[in-house]
Amino acid sequence: MVLAELGGSISRALQQMSSATVIDEKVLNECLNEITRALLQSDVQFKLVRDMQTNIKKIVNLDDLAAGHNKRKIIQQAIFNELCKMLDPGKPSFVPKKGKTSVVMFVGLQGSGKTTTCTKYAYYHQKKGWKPALVCADTFRAGAFDQLKQNATKAKIPFYGSYMESDPVKIAVEGVERFKKENCDLIIVDTSGRHKQEAALFEEMRQVSEATKPDLVIFVMDSSIGQAAFDQALAFKQSVSVGAVIVTKMDGHAKGGGALSAVAATKSPVIFFGTGEHMDEFEVFDVKPFVSRLLGMGDWSGFMDKIQEVVPMDQQPELLQKLSEGHFTLRIMYEQFQNLLKMGPIGQVFSMLPGFSAELMPKGREKESQAKIKRYMTMMDSMTNEGN
Ligand SMILES: Nc1nc2c(ncn2[C@@H]2O[C@H](COP(=O)(O)OP(=O)(O)OP(=O)(O)O)[C@@H](O)[C@H]2O)c(=O)[nH]1
User: Fold this and answer.
1) Which GO biological-process labels does this protein carry (predicted)?
2) How confident is the model at residue 359 (pLDDT cuts 50, 70, 90)?
3) What does pTM read for this prediction?
4) Which atom number of ligand 1 is nearest to the Cα of residue 110?
5) Relative to the CA of 179, which of 153, 237, 296, 327 has its CA 20 to 30 Å away?
6) Domain boundaries, position 310
7) Is the beta carbon of 221 within 6 A of some atom in ligand 1?
């Protein structure tokens, strides 16, 4: 994840500032310039970066801070708050409610990862006990319906689409009607993405939106879009009422800073991000934990959530009891390694711990570490079996 590089640069700038003997105007400026450079290199829009720098300078007035104030902490906090402000449009997006029908429409440019993301979004909710359904209103790209059908079948999610019908509005309306009758609580409408014929794309999108009256329109954005992100996101927002953003391909070589620009352009929050092609390579986006991870400060609440997801509820107190009594057996270690593997890519898990950054665990190394854990587990398995 290249955003981790941004995180690495920002934490290095903060560390340099922390190791300075005296925090004066010069040290603060050097730190801010370093952060500005890192943000611009990550494709964050120039105006956003300039505003952030001005705001921090306004908040951190070194002359006014009496001796005894922890200037490092104040600067760090100001940087943290400003980065959060960049990613937080100030109003939450519509949140669908389990058991109550919501229609969610996905829009975005061709190849942004819309179709894949629709299934990831459906699968994420299905795992939490929702009844999602997918409607393929992309009649432009040959193969779009097959792709959605294949993904949906794999995840056992009901879907609707047609090989014959060429009117996306008709398909969208029929699909939504059908799944409403079937009491699905999350009806997801995938629309076509195009590159060149943008006027036609926007008109079609507007018509699908008018006909299906979605509760939420999600703009899917490829993180590699770079500086173009602001204008693209704005164009979508001007045609349909985008209410949330999902950023895809955060695992790739993209600089990722476009996400911040998309938030500014659509005034809508990022709600999830995609970190791979697989169905479960999808993470909830929360501003504070994200910025915290970006600055290498960890995300304990995310880490605890992951643990709760993978360690069965009934085993959690027993595990804590055993650990607090100092009972750490080979069997417990084996089980915890198993849980660790279930928590997802190892780099993602480590990036939740303070002092770690996903930059420290590039994708190739991640596979290597995962394979090593699996080898240890096989060894332990045979050792524990021998002991029985
Ligand atoms: N690495 C990575 N690849 C992704 C991610 N999300 C989607 N992709 C891949 O991106 C490619 C394009 O994704 P699609 O879902 O087909 O894109 P789309 O926006 O629906 O495309 P159109 O229907 O042509 O508009 C596919 O190869 C996906 O597997 C992600 O988070 N990470």
Assistant:
1) SRP-dependent cotranslational protein targeting to membrane, translocation
2) very low
3) 0.75
4) 25
5) 237
6) 300-382
7) no
